[in-house]
Amino acid sequence: WTVFMRAAASGDIETVRRFIDDGVEINGQSPNGTTALMAAIKNGRSDVAFELVELGADLAICDQEGFNAVQWAQKKGLTPFLTVLKERELVGEVLEEPKSDTTHVVQ
């Protein structure tokens, strides 16, 4: 994982914002396909996940396991995060047709 992804996973929202302000690829993926959004979700960091979505993180990118961020949120039981996505009508499309061909690998 990159420092950006580790910041998202640890809940360091200020560092996440700083990286985005500095032009980091918000949808960059690790070699296994994890994005910063997935890293935040996998570690229960709903606040960072909300921020990343607001800043343009792609919910539909899939990792090597074939899961997108919404599916990881379901697996991890992040109900408040999923509720907001449903209220904003962002979930249905992602669950029906995840973009498994979209990759943004970063080293």
Q: Which short descriptors sum up this protein?
A:
107 residues, mainly alpha, 7 helices, 0% strand, disordered C terminus
Would you mind describing this structure in some detail?
With 107 residues, the chain is mostly helical. It contains 7 helices and no strands. The longest helix has 9 residues.
Per-chain topology:
Blueprint: H1 3-10, H2 13-21, H3 36-42, H4 46-54, H5 69-76, H6 79-87, H7 91-96
Helix pairs in contact: 1-2, 1-3, 3-4, 3-5
User: Segments where pLDDT lies below 50 for 5+ residues?
Assistant: 96-107
* Morphology call: globular
Q: Helix share of residues?
A: 40-55%
- End-to-end CA span: 8 Å
Strand content: under 5%
How many beta strands in the DSSP annotation?
0
Q: Order of SSEs, N→C?
A: HHHHHHH
Number of helices: 7
Note the main sheet.
none
Summed over residues and divided by their number, the pLDDT gives a mean of 88
Global Rg: 12 Å
Q: Strand pairing plus helix content: what structural class?
A: mainly alpha
Describe the structure concisely:
This protein is an all-alpha fold and 107 residues long. The protein is 52% helix and 0% strand.
